[in-house]
Known about the structure:
Blueprint: H1 21-126, H2 139-158, H3 162-167
Amino acid sequence: MEQPGFGSRSLVPARAPSTSPRRVMELSYFCSRAFLAQKSFRDYRQMRYKIVQTRSTTTTMVFVVVVVVVVVAVVAVVVVVFVVVVVVVVAVLLSLLSWLLLLLSWWLLLLLLIVVVVVVCCRRCRRRRCRCRRRRCCCVVVAVVVVVVVVVVVSVVVGVPSTHLNML
């Protein structure tokens, strides 16, 4: 059986310790070393836990920051694409609207010219001052001829592009 003391595995001696100064010094040294070893192991465990916890927190924070940056980038790209699409669609619609208004204005102008020529010509026909030798009124033919002459003169004088005339 082992003797309790410095070399023993048990911290509690089986009998009362000796009171010799050397034995007291040995026991105090042993106890202080055991205490320091236990304390340092506890401190090591706590420090290790803090390191792991800090790494975990850091990893989580990095993950959150990366997710936020990716979400913000995706939202920014979607907003930019949406704005570009809206601007392009509005520009195309405004361009089509301007062409439509131009075409409509030309058609309205020509229609008004035809109506004026027909009304003036038909008044002459009713008053029997028509220059036509036929019995029926030739005002529509006269109106079309007048409109063609006016369109050609206006396009030459004002310089209306040929695309506008092609649309007519």
